[in-house]
Amino acid sequence: MASSRQIELIASAWLARRDGAEWTAHDQLQLDAWLQESTAHRVAYLRLDAAWRQSDRLKALGAGVPAGAVPERGAWGMAPLPESRATPSESGTDGEPSAPARVAAARHLSALSPATRKLPKSRPRRLLRYATAGFALVVLASLAWGWRHYAAVDQASYRTAIGGLQDVPLPDGSVITLSSDSRILVTLSRSERHIDLQQGEAFFKVAKDPGRPFVVSAGDRRAIAVGTRYDVRRDAAELRVIVTQGVVRLESDNGPGGRRRPSTLLPAGSIALASDAGVVVNSGSVQQAEEFLSWRSGFLSFHDTPLASAAAEFNRYNARKIVIGDASIGSLRVGGNFRWSNAETFVRLLELGFPVRAVHGKDVIVLKSR
């Protein structure tokens, strides 16, 4: 006795032959005879025929099997379900798919691998949206962190005229003393206290704050300290750093070609001169270092200093300039303490002690040999 599966295969074969171009009357007689043999034959045939007529898609589900051929049982559900071939007649009421369509879709889905069924096409897009949203959150958090730590919370600029001195107290307790004809830009943030020495000289009495280094920049160099006292002077060709308390780290930007330039630690008593040729450090006593900073009390100190350099120092604090009229007297060595506001007294002493004579003009004092 044939099994139900065998009966179904035979019934499907009859259906395929019936719709073929070579169907004859003799074939119909044989089909009728087969149907009369068993109720199971008739049920199987009628069920398949009803499905065939209702859906009219067995050929499509046959994955390209030509009309008249019987697709294998398992192959019916392996062909894709082309949406373009769906017609209104295939839909049920209210736009719902018909029963055959649901059966075909179910078979199509069952042919897919479990992994594929678990990953619908929309999931990659959803994952992409999640990843994009996560990335945006990270960026926003980074920006917020950067703003909190590096955004300037207080910024101000200060400058002095020729002959002027100014104390600038900062909110953190530090005090900056600006020398004559100097200019700075102070930027305070939660992570750093930054002073851009744009011109001249300034002395820094730094309040201790390990969480916020105190950075004085001048061109491509930086003098960094945490709780110390030091002086930075910016000239055209060099930078001078004098440390009277604590330790300062002198850093430089990379040199030509990206060559890295090492940093230099300057303990108290150090006098460092930084130029294109490098950094030269003179280590002495704190007292000796302090003598270079007597400008804060209104004096200039010279120790075996060339007259040309001494004249340049007076000119930093006075609008009326001292000019070396003869190159031969520029190398004369001078010493002593002088009020930088009294250049006339300095010139008068020169005339008394050196072969120098002064020619006084409205804006300049010209020194010549005598």
From TrEMBL:
Keyword vocabulary terms for this entry: Membrane, Transmembrane, Transmembrane helix
Domain FecR N-terminal: 11-48
One Pfam family here: FecR
Residues that span the membrane, as ranges: 127-147
Annotated stretches, region: Disordered: 74-101
Record-annotated FecR protein domain positions: 157-249
Name recorded for this polypeptide: Transmembrane sensor
